[in-house]
Every structure is written in C-alpha cells, then in structure tokens.
Give the backbone structure.
Amino acid sequence: MANFLEAVLGQYNNWAFIILLMIGIYAMIAKNNLLKKVIGMAIFQSAIILFYVSVSLKKGATIPIIAHGHGHDHGAVAHAIDAASYANPLPHVLMLTAIVVGVATLGVALAIVQKVNRVYGTIEEDEILEKIKE
Amino acid sequence: MEVNSWVLWQFDVLILLMVVVCAVVALQLKDLVSSAITFGAYSFFMCILWTEMLAVDVAFTEAAVGAGVSTILFLGTALHVKRRAKD
Amino acid sequence: MKIIALLVSVALGVILLVATNDLPEWGDPQSPASTHLSRYYIENSMEQTSVPNFVTAVLADYRGYDTMFETAVIFCAGITVLTILRRSHRRKKKDVQPRPCREGQDIILKSAARLIAPMMQLFALYVLAHGHHSPGGGFQGGVISGASFILLSIAYDLEMLLSRLKERTIMFFSGLGVLIYAGIGAICLLLGGNFLNYSSWSKILQVSEVEARSHGMLGIEIGVFITVTFIMISLYADLASGGEMDEGL
C-alpha cells in the first residue's frame, strides 16, 4: 500500500497534466457552446505547457538566472558554472513563446466565434447545425 | 514515505487542486462572462505554479498574457454573443 | 456525443499514464532533457553573450531564428483577426446602441486609469530594458504596454483611443517591429557574419564581440516589444467591438 501511495503521489505532476489534458479534450469534443470549446482548447494548451515546465525542473536547482551576474566585467566569469544548479532554460524559452503565440491564436479562434455568431445568430453547435440544414 | 521533499509538495498539490477546480468550474458555468473570469483565475493559479516550479520567465508571461489580456479577449467575445450558454 | 468524448478522454488518459512510466524520475539532473543542449547553454551563455538570464540569451540569441518567426506568427494572427472581423462601412452614429454600463461615465475609474497607465508604460519599458538581468523581455514588456492602452480604452471608450491612435498607425507599427527584428539580422549579413549573428555588430558599435551580442539582443527585443504591443491593441479593438471599431467593452 505504501509503495502504491508513493508511486501515485510521487508522480503528482504527471497526474495533474494528464487530468488537465483529459478535461481539455473532453470540453473540445462534448461542449455545445463554441466559447466553451475555445476555453477547453486553452486548457489543453496550458496542460502541455505544464508538462514541459515540469520536465525542466531539477532537484536542488534554482531559477535560471546567474545571481550577481550584474557587475562582472563583460565576458569574463571568474567561477565555473555548474549546470546542475540551474533549472533547464530550454523548455522555458519554448513555452514562453508558446504562451504569447497562444494568445494570438486564441484571438483568431475568438474572431471566428464572433463571425459565426454574426452569420448564424448563435454559437450553440446544435442550433448552427440546424440552420445549416435549412 | 519520501515524496519529493525538495519542493514544497503540499503547496504544489494545493495549487494543482485549485487549477483543476478552476478548469472544471470555468467549463461548467452557464454564464459565459463568469466563465471567462474563472478562466482568468485558472491562468493566475497556473502562474503561481510556474513560479514555484522555477520558471520565472514563463510565470511572468502567463501573468501578463493569460491572466490579463486573454481574459479581456474572452470577455469581449462573451459580451457580443448570447451570454447564457446551454451547457 | 458525451459518451464518445468521455471514452476518448479516458483513452487518452490511460495511454499517457502508461507512457509516463517511461519518463525519467522527476527532477533528475541527469535526465536526457537536461543534459545535452541545455547544459551547453547554461555553461557557455554567460561567457559568450554576457547575459546572466539564460532564458533571454537562448530566446534572443541561440534560438533567434525561432523567435523571429514567432513574432511573425503574432503579426499574422493580428492581420487574420482584422480580416475576419473588420467591417469596412461604419455604422451611423445614431444606429449605435450604447451599452447601459456606458451611460454613467465613472470619474473615479477615469482618473485612476489616467494615473495607472503611464506607470504601466514605464514598467513595461523597465521590463524590456532589464530583461537581460531579471525575468522579462520583449514579450512580457510588450503585453504590459499593450494592456496599458487597453486599460485606457476600457476606462474611456474605444473611439477615444482610436482617434489618437489610428488603425493605420497600429498596423504600421506592428509590421515595423518584425521589420526591425529581421533588419538587425540582415545587417549582420551585410557586415560579413551569419544571419542574426550579432557579434558582427561589433564593427559598428565599437565594442567587443561578446558585448555586441548583448546589445543585439536588446535590439531585437525592442522589435518584439513594438509588434506585441500594437498587435495586442489591435486584437482588443477588433474583438471587443466586434469589428465595428466604435464601442469597446
């Protein structure tokens, strides 16, 4: 039992992103309202970002900025840098741009929702389907 | 039981719970404006989570973009469509 | 539909749960993701670029090509929203139905917005300029600066913002940002270096090659800042007014 608990609790970051991915994909498929679908898409996206950020974490590391890197002579670092003492910066970079691009594409999605509303007068999926059939 | 003593895992689990709760509530609320605001809260909890996972730059971006601008964009759309959702 | 969605999401969850067994232990410094490339960045970026913030160094220098196209994607998204929503003809003034919340113009909100907006813009410039040494940079600063304009247009209304900042100006500046980014890279070519290799700027700036890379990063962050600021304003103006450009939230 203790082993099982440890296996479950020790992986709680994985549990979190899997649960968020499941919520996101369920909302994208099952929700009737287009705006809710877009919210589901945003949740799906941030779940993936959560996975990347938790990969970047290292035991006993600190934030990926050199402390007091300010006053040094440029280009000359007195002490060697230990890679294990800083969190992995590469996933941070990828996710930082992903968030900003994410809001831009979110804007496109919302614009399409508004356009659908302008043409059909509703953003409920079943009502739109009925209007298309007419 | 040795569970990741190197981060404050109780704090971590608490924030993750809040994130999941906010996600579910944002999807279940019938009022689209409340839903947009709850999604802003979701982004803000995500931001706290990322600060705690040492990704300060990502957290800063999320605080400005997710909790700020994307909430405004959702609100702008929610006010232009029928405010009451069916599900 | 609900049952299909439930089945799909549960199947996804089970597959991912099985797959996570193969992931390395969480927080292991020797995991594959943290050894090869990122190790090089952490050990060498201070020496090669004199930027203490690894994230900025990787974002703007080592992966500069990637970031350039991310900026272009943001620009394209702004144009797309404009194309989808914008209506060319303007409604007559009397046809516009003012929202009920517009009627009592709030003096407290207006004064507060007028005080806060310049502070936000100053902070945005600080975030941009201090991105080399602390969290921040072009993306974050740009969003904050865009949010200050959005705040003004919420407290007053959208027409007040658009009368001071024409749509033409907004789109001009958002294109200019991408152009600054690409231009800095192209000048590197003219100076005999590779595209976006800022060390060749040392011939113009009269500094060492390492410092030239640091300055080059600031230059492209300024480009990103301008694009993100104006695209955020454009997104808000289109989405909040439904393409009419006459009334905000």
